[in-house]
Amino acid sequence: MKKTVFMLVALLLAPLQAVFAQEDVVVQDLEAYLDSTVSIVAWFYKTDTLVYDSYSLEGHIEGNDTITDSSVRTRFEVCVADSTKKGYRLAFKTQEYEPSDTTSFRGKTLQLMGQSNQGAKMIVQTNEVGQPQKIENFRELKKKISDNLTVYARKMYEDNPSLYTQISQPELEKQLKKALEERYGSSEQMLEESYAGLLLLMHGQQFEVGEDDVEADGQRIHIEASKGKTGDEAYDFDDDYQLYMRIETVAPGSVQQTIHYSYSYFPDGWPKEVVITTMTPNGESRTELSQMHIVWVSKN
């Protein structure tokens, strides 16, 4: 879905790289121009270190009721390892992984998988405006995850001997690693689903302050961009900025899926809060719900 977002945004908005590349651009009224646009650009400093909490939720809506089927809280750290004219090297590391359910077999499985990957560091290279370009240590990271899957499978059989009657340990490991290859077969695939890909999804884009509605290629897009404080928090600034985007995939006579993107940024381009919600109708009275909510915790 993110590829669709980038494609549509590219058609509608001027990428900021073009502005950076034109050294002779002259803006007649700079103050008015800055007031009327929201430019999502990274102005990071080397050694910037931020901590975020991520809440991943899966559930469904029936009538007026929202039911949570499962949720996971993950705390991760991102540090600017290097900063140059060409871009940034960002190090992402998971610190905590806490599923809401730790008693059922599924809950224990999620907890074990999350714990096995704690401490793994992902190095992401961005361009000068903060757009992620690639995972520098992709092969190393993928091998670590693969090795952890072997440990995870062994632990599953130790805790649940009855599994031997359903599937052999070698076969389970084979299936897990096949699933890993399908999901993270390339650096691009892993980056797209990573915290780096989600946090920096909109970097490099420029939006006019206000609201806009567009239709293109079976998509209805609603965009809202604004500047200023978002609340009474101690770290709200007058020049914070926010972006909200709703994308509906439309079939003849109905909406097949709706994705809401809500981003709030500090003046230096670090995200303050990210909420990505996907709603997919399932029958007449039920809607499947998936949400990723990332909240800034601290900055050093």
Number of helices: 8
| Uncertain spans | 3-28
Strand content: 35-45%
* Spatial extent as radius of gyration: 21 Å
The biggest beta sheet is recorded as: 11 strands, antiparallel
Order of helices and strands: HHHEEEEHEEHHHHEEEEEEE
Estimate percent helicity. 25-40%
What is the strand arrangement across the widest sheet?
6-5-4-3-2-13-12-11-10-9-8
Mean pLDDT: 81
Class from helix and strand fractions = alpha+beta
Q: Multimeric state of these chains?
A: single chain
Structure characterization notes:
With 300 residues, this protein is of the alpha+beta class. Helix content is 28%, strand content 42%. It has helices spanning 2-12, 16-21, 30-36, 105-116, 138-159, 169-183, 187-193, 195-199, and strands spanning 37-39, 49-62, 65-84, 87-99, 121-126, 132-135, 206-208, 210-216, 219-227, 241-251, 254-265, 271-281, 286-299. The strands form two sheets. Strands 6-5-4-3-2-13-12-11-10-9-8 form an eleven-stranded antiparallel sheet. Strands 1-7 form a two-stranded antiparallel ribbon. α4 (105-116) runs antiparallel to α5 (138-159) and α5 packs antiparallel against α6. The two termini are 33 Å apart.
